[in-house]
Amino acid sequence: MSAEGFRRELLKEGLLQDGGVAGVYHRSFTFEGIVRGVEALVSAAGGNEQHQQLFFSPVMARSTLVDSGYLTSFPDLIGTVSSFAGTEAELPVLLEKVNSGGKWDELLSPTEVTLCSSACHSIYPLVAGTPIPADGLRYEVQSFCFRHEPSSDPARMQSFRQHEFVYLGTEGRAREHREQWLQRGCDLLAGLGLSIEVVVANDPFFGRAGQLLAAGQREKALKYEIISPITSEVPGAISSANYHEDHFGESFGLSMVDGSVAHSACIGFGLERIALALLFKHGIDVDSWPAEIREALSLARDVHSAEPT
Amino acid sequence: MSDVDATIRKVLETHGRLPVSASALKDDDDLYQSGLSSHASVNVMLALEDAFDVEFPDALLRKGTFQSVAAIREALESLGVVVGPG
Fold first, then answer.
1. What CATH number was assigned to the domain covering residues B3-78?
2. How large is the ipTM?
């Protein structure tokens, strides 16, 4: 089945509703039930380790977008927030543009917030300025993230959730964190019946210069992706495990108690993509999924929702 | 030192953000071990393209191309830059 065919099935079943713009979808409560079941399983995989747990605001400070390096590396993917900062005297010009179908957005100015680029980015400014203990810091976080990649493929939503486990500290422990979570991620996702594979990958750095950065990232295996069919048999990333070296340590001024620059690593789980991968694998009718999968995700039988129109 | 080598070292001095002087580097010294970061290597690449009026093809947009002064010289030669006598 093609991604377009699967998309039509999802819409017909009412699991997703078209948001009116490519890559924007509303989710049914059934779809959300799967997402929350995945979220609970992922969170439980954090096991016995102590984490600071945060659900991040879906908007973040502009400075975080800049300091993370996301703006310069992926300028084509960012989402900023603008608003009207004019006076009442300037309002008629805006109204005229709106009423005539003109470019009213040119009259807006950037605000102090942007959409979130990646869940872990919001951690670093929180930690900056306080020396990190020798054992490091562990965070479990979730955020809605934005990537400007309009597409009809539901696997490529513009706004989607990442659930991450992040480590900040020494190089050795950061690498260990990444390896450990890559294994946990594989076990968890394979345990849900998904046909997964681990591949070395790179971020989509912008432009020709980006190609050199991407090649460097692959050569050092800084990014692994867990891939699986999501909306078609062509596999895509449903989770990624990244070793950041000292990139965020340098950019945000994160240092250890001994003065050395902190290293970091993270694993991110794409909640909507995992839900879609499960629907693709086990079928659109969630009620007829294998019992052990339904149980693992704590999915109750759907007796309350209205028939899809 | 040839003109090409001198220009390569000048680009490294200006854009490489190396903790050591580019003139102190031996031809085969590993630039990454000498402190060249991924981001600085991008600036070096762009500056080399500018200085020699070449464009590195996709196949040369790899870490190895900028591994050392000698590696850079070889890459430029493969793009038709004539390396004169040293």
1. 1.10.1200.10
2. 0.81
